[in-house]
Structure formats: structure tokens, C-alpha cells
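Deliverable D4.2, example record:
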Amino acid sequence: MPRFSLRNPHMVIVAALLTALLGAMAFTRMPVDVFPRLHIKAAVVATFYPGFAPLAMEQDITSRYERFFTLGNGIEHIESRSIPGVSAITVYFHPDVNIGVGAANLATLAMGDLGLMPPGTLPPLVLEYNASSSIPVILVTLSGPYDETELQNQARYNVRNFMATVEGASVPYPFGGKIRQIMAYVDRQKLQAQGLTLRDVTNAINATNQILPAGDAKIGPYDWYIYSNSQIPTPEALNHVPIKLGPAQSPTYLRDVGDAEYAAQIQYNKVLINGRPSVYVPVFKQTGANTLDVINGVKRAIREVTGLRAGMKVGTLFSQEGTILNAVRALEHEALSGALLASLMILLFLGSFRSTFAIFLSIPLSIMAGFVGLFVSGQTINLMTLGGFTLAIGRLVDDSTVVLENINRHFAMGKAPAQAAAEGAEEVTYAVLASTISTMVVFLPVVFLFGVSRQLFTALALAVLFAMAASYLVSMSIIPIYCARWLNPEEALEAAHRQATGIDTRRGPLAAFDRAYERFATRFARLLDRTMDHKAMVIASALVLFVVSMLMFPLLGTRMFPETDPGKFVINIVTRAGTRLELTETAARRINDVIHRVIPPHDLKEVIANLGVVPNVSALYTPNSGEDTGQIMVALSAEHSRSTAYYERVVRAALEREVPDVRTFFSSGSIIDAVLNFGAQAPIDVQLSAPMSEDFSPMFGFAREIEERLRSLPEVGQMMIKQVADYPTVEINVDRIKAARLGITARSVITNLITALNSNDMIQPSIWIDPRNGDDYYLSAQYFEQNINSFQTLLDIPVGTRLASNFEDYHYRGAKPRPSSSLGGHEQSILLGEVATIKLTRYPSEADHYDIQRVVDVLISPSTGDLGGTLDAVRHALAGVKPPRNVKVYFRGSVVNMQKTFASIESGFILAVIVVYLVGVAQARS
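Output generated by the structure prediction step:
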């Protein structure tokens, strides 16, 4: 290669310029992100049925789908979460499975099992899983002088539409506010006085509000389109809908038993931004999408939003842009600093600006060639690829330095420049090749990694491999041409003369450094001479140092990535089990006040509280499980004076002291940690597992025992049982015999009950489309929420009528309802308390599964950066603890995956040592 380059210098130089140009283009066009594109083979199957309690959701929907999904192919394991009205099943596939085919298979299986689900169950959504879905890349906020319903409506039907067009963005429904709905609020006493039930009201509404085509008619010479008033024109028109019209009776209209109006669903979710009720649209990135592209796309889309009401403003909060750019810029700075320092060292040792420039050329050329390789292989500019270049910079100059030094040696022999360049480069061709291959082989362990770790470190390894391969080509082509054309042979001859005579008349800092180095080299040579006389002692000392270092290795802490300062953190809060949203909001405001008092104003940017959860798609993007849980996101200013970890500590201490009645668990607000933790709240998860036939109580009892045992460990910083064990619950037991004697069924009882409490959205849905803008809303009937204020109120809910519903339910042939003279012709209502009893108890607010086994999770966050040491301490502390019967203990979380990764790297390290040795054997031919 050196002689070919010297014979064709123009071709080689043009190739180098093209490489630099292509590298620069690739660098400007490659997306910038925090990590390489991660493709996790998993899909989420989500089913929604508002009104179902967690255990009912688990039993009637989640577990049935899970068992049916086992018919799929390539499944590695299944996880699920059942919270009120929401079933979320995450199916993980083996690495060789095509995720598109796997997700389509799940969708087919889900639709095949849909017919066996509870009546009214909607077809499930099948979405590709995203590891970063626990942390949004940016929040789009909507503010203005309007109530929460209007803000939510605009965010849902207007602003979100613009965000959904951003490439790579995943945009769920907005958080916060009240979801607009057309409500027919019914007065229970008036309904009872008319001998009616809510089922009668919903039947009348559904019968009169129909979205139906009217067709067209060919009359005369024209074809006439026909529009009808099958849909109620306005919500107020519902008040004139007849509910009952009996013989010799005046019609009973909806206005006689209630009132229809523009209103909102019962609020299950609330957002506070710096203590003010607000609404935001979270934007997540899709799997494989570029984070910065998504953020920039959202910012561009905001400028295009139209149709907002006067005074409304769209903004952004909690952007991950700064976290990513700061991390990338820090690595770019380190890479540039490393290149400059390496060049400075070369200048000091070679003592020649011309020689130093030759070496310096190899760094940008090799890196530009590396960018071309990364661009072609579909990589991005991220922490791993930049880290790979940073690692390689010191090694990139080695090949060129060896070649240049050997060419200088031939110059010192008096050879012509072209001959010295050719012979000097050829002499070290195989040595440099062996050295380059040995360095590349060090990254062989990446092959043995798995999952996300493999995808992360493959990008780093590719950056090093491309740069190293380019460095070898540069040293064998560009360096000989440069030396033959630009190096001065006289400098080499003078250097040889100085070395032979020991006379150096030069002046300046470079000459002084050379003389100091020569003195050091002379002393070091004497030391080597003495050590050669004591080979056994030197080898024994080296072995002792090796053994001692190996013994000290386990004492080092372990973590997948160094700790960073993201400038954000998240506080997961749990109030007293079953606390209403209004009281959880009060607790969040107290926490907001503490945060604003503890963190100085110049360091605090914003505090965003997301409380409760709505049973729709948004539930997939929040850890909240009910109205008693919440998530408070704290963002520090860009130039905060103290570290994020410091503010986490002081806020935690203040909350423990001032808000002791609220359980808190702090986690990182960085997308980096979100990806590394696979979206989990904590890196360590002690998971208790039991069969579906087992009750949750023993697991929760054992989880509390684990908490108590681990509390004294210095390695453990925080702990929290993820699930809430004792959510207040009412069991309603229908006496079917009593109901049958009164002529009603359990179905009639429960449908009237759910309609009274949560509307008829799922069991008898009716849609109203606003003719002004095409926005669609549920048209529902229920009691005023504030009127359900006691258990007696529940028992007084009408669930049937003695002279009408019985015949409808049981189809008594030949029987005819007879008016009751004592009630003036009105039927008598059957109240819930007549056919059912209630029992107060407590159940979990969330039912989680792992491989169709019930699980309870004890989340653990370490007190130091040593994640591996914390897990080892937890394992040791629990080694002698015996779990209850049929309960098994598993250790899960990112730390477990980290330890598996380290184990695979160790085996790969041994293989790399062997391969390096074999390369040396091949080089030495002995």
C-alpha cells in the first residue's frame, strides 16, 4: 500500500478529500440523540372499560387475554398491569422475532378472544413498546383565561392534532382538565317519584339520539340528498325528550327528572403547573425515532397551531433537549480536548511542527471516515458513538506515529525522501496491522451482549472499529506521501547527529524538553538494566500486583453508566389509600409549597404535578394507579448552582419532616435513566410472585416485612411498595332470589348502578357530534356526582320498577302491567337496598402480573452510585428470609440486566485475550 500511494499520490489525496467531505456531510446530516436507536421487541395490548375495579379488570379481561396470548409465537415473557378501567399487557418477544409480525399476531389473537370478553368491551389497542415512555421528551402546555374543561377540549381536539403530525412523535391524550361530555344529570328523588330508573332514561336518550343516514331521493330531474334530525341538535333539546308516556298519563320529559347540559366527565386526573390547574399534552418519542428531531418538530408545530380561542397560548415545558445537548456537547468537548492534547504530546516528543501536523492529520481523517461508516450503518451521533471516538483518539495517532518515526529513521540513514517513505512504511506494515487488529479485538465482547446493552455498546464498538480501520489506511497511505513531500531529511540527519554526539545547540522549549527527556531516558535505561538482573523478583512483583488488583476488583462499585446531572427529578407520591382527587390535590399543593421554599427561585424552573389517572390511552403513559397517587416533575434552571442530587436530598428531607402523611419515592427525570431502567421507577425491584389462585394479602404482608428488614441497610436510599394494598372497597351482593321475586335481574341492578355512578358510556354508549366543528362527545346520563355522598344513597338508587321492568326482564308471557292506583298511575321503584346488601372491605388498587403470576413489587433506590453493591446487599439481607407458601422472590430491574451484561463481558474479555495472543503468534510466526 505505501508504494501504491507514492506512485498515485493524486488518487490517494482525492480519496482523502472525498472522505473528509463525505464525513462532514454525514456529521451534519446524522441525527443527534442521547442513545443509539434502540429496538426493544415488545408490544403493549391495552383494553379500556371504565367502571371496572382493578381485581375485576384483572380477572375478567387481563388474565383471559394473557392466557390467550400464549398461543402466539416467539414470546419471551409477559407483564401486565390492571388498574381501574385499564388493562395493559406488555408482551416481550425473543430478539429474532419480527416485531411487526409479533404485534399483528397479538392483534389477531386479541380480536379472536374479544367475543368472550364482558359485553361492551372495546377492541384492544396494540402499540409497539417504548422504553422511554415513562419520561416525555417535551410537554406542550395550554393556558388562558378559561376553565379546565375548555382547556382540555382545545388540547384534545385541536392542539394534539398538530403534535401528532411530527415525525417520530407519540402523542397520547392530554393530561389534566375535565373531559367535555353531554350530560343528562338526573335527580334520584324525582326519578323515584316517577317510578323510573336510569336505564329508562338512557333507553329514551339512545332511542331519540341516533346517528343514521337518511339517504337520497330521485325526485323530478334531481337527486336530492336528505339530512334528518335523527341526532339531537343541541344538548338543551334533550330536556324535551319524553322518557315515559303511559295511558291516561301526561308525558314524563327528561326535564321532569333532571337537566341536560354541556358538562364534563367525572374528573379522575388533575394537573398543576407551579400550583395552578393546567392541561398539558405529553410528547414521547417512538421506538427508533430521534429525540432532538421530535423536540424540534414539536416546537415547529406549535407555531402552526390555529383555531385557538382568544387569549389561549401554547407553550412547552420539561424538555429533554438540554439534557441531551449538554451530554453530547460535553463529549464533543472531551474529544476535541483529547485531540489537541494528543497533538501537543506528539509535538513535545517529535520536536517538529511538520511531523506533528502529519500526525494531527490522521485524527480528523480517521474520525470523518468513522462518521461515513456510522452514517451508512444507520447510526446516530449519540453518547455511545461520541464516546467511542473519544476512546479511540489516543489510539488513532499511534499508527501514524510509528510509521512516521520509522520513515525518519530511514531519513537519518541518508536515503531519498521517496525511498525512505516507501521502505520505512513497508517495514512496519504488519506490526501496525497487528497492533490495530489487537485493538479492534478488544471490542469483541460486544458480540456476546444481549438486549439493549448490545445495541448500546455495538454503536460504541462500531465507532472505534471504523476509526481504527481508517487510521490504519491513513498511516499506510497519507503519511508516506506527506513525509516524502513535506518532511525535511536534514532534520532527521541533525537529530541522528545529536543523538550520536550528545551535542545539542538548539534553544527553546522543545529543545529543553528533548534534553530533559534524554536524561530521563538514560536513567530509565539504567533502571531497566538493573531490573534485568533480577527477573524473578520483577515477575513476582508483577504477579503480586496483578493478584492484589484482582482481589480489589470486587470492592469497586458497579453501575451501567456514570451518574449525570439531568437538572430534573420526579417525585412519585402516594396519599392515604383511597384518597379522593381533591384531597390528593391538596397534598400536592403542600408539596409544591415545600419545593418552592427549599429550592431557591433562581435554581427552580417549574414544578408540574400529574395526579390520578383517566381510564383511556393516557393511562399507559403514567405510573399513577388511582386518585390517591400522583407524579410531581421538578425541573431546575439551566444554570442551577447546586447539583440535582443535592436538591433531591434536601427536598426529600423537607417532605419527610413537613408532609409525613404522604409517601414519596424519588426517581430521575432524565430520559437517559428512563431508557436504562426500561421505563421503571427504580433500578432495583424485589418482586414477589404467586399463582393467580393465591390472595394478595400474604404477598403484601411479606413485602412489608422486606421493607422493615432492608430499612437499616446503609446501601438502601429509598424503598416503596409499588402497589397499594388496602384501597377502600364496597362489595354489593345482589340477592338474586329477591330480585327474581320482584321481577328484575342482576343485570338490571348492575346496569342501573353503574349508570348512576359512572354514566352509561360503556354499557349503552351514545355519541353526540357537535355540528359546528365535528368534535364528538359521549352523551351520558347519571346522578349528580355530589349527590352520591353516603352509603344510604347507594342503597336508595332505583334499579327497577314493580310493574314494568319485571316483565321486560323476565318476559312473562300474557302478563300486562297494571297502573297502581295508590301512586296515581305511576309504577313503584325497586331500590338497590331491597335486593342487595353492601359490605365494606379493602382490596389492592392495582393488580400486576409477570408471566400470568400475581406480583407485588418492592422498589429500591440505592443511597450511593454503587447499584451492583446495593443489589448484593439486598440479596444477602434476604437470603435467610422464608417467604409465605407459594410465594417466590425474584430480583428484577436494570441492575439485574447490568450484572448479566457484566458477566457476558467477562467471558468476552477472556476470548479477546486469547484472540490477541493468537494475533501475536501469527505476527511473530512462532
